[in-house]
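Researcher: Go.
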Amino acid sequence: MRALAVEDDPRIAANLNAALSAAGFRVELAGDGEEAWFLGDTEDYDLVVLDLGLPEIDGLSVLKRWRANGRTMPVLVLTARGTWQERVEGIEAGADDYLPKPFRMEELVARARALVRRAGGHATALQETGALSLDTNRMEVAVHEVPVKVSALEYRLLAYLMQHRDRPVPPVELLEHLYGDDDAREANALEAVVARLRRKLGPGVIGTRRGFGYYLEQT
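Model: Structure:
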């Protein structure tokens, strides 16, 4: 899962990065509204955590611009001002959830996971497709209810395929959501990860539709 965390306080930004990374997200950071608007308008994210009190452009204006341009990624809004009027304004502008400061990182991660689940059509943390099941709270994988140990990168790949289980996911899209800007993004690196997972999970879990991408088998 690829997340954008928009926060101008370096300490909070670092904590967001650490907490979301530990929860299985590949995190990118933005420190002002101008950068946030550009990234959110030109890149695809599975989640955005957006502080409203930003320099350059305030967070509410950034959110309104995204929604006006048809950007539909889930947005969790953070603010130091927790009045009900501001919460209503944020929700009406297109926020999916709202968290006033100060907050516990555990609650933020729980809300982030819930937003991503709902965006993918999942009601609970236990997600199942065919023989594969993922517990997104515990970050655990099982095939036919038998636990399978996977790496963080392998888990992110499975979670993204589960999130988009209704279609084949092109390799280029998977690369964008799995790797940071400084990491290797060659197709053969992705093929190696998929090959390792197929050995661990066995046949009938990850399929390939030639010319379209990878998908999770439904039966």
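Model: The helical segments are 10-22, 33-42, 59-68, 84-93, 105-119, 152-163, 171-178, 187-201.
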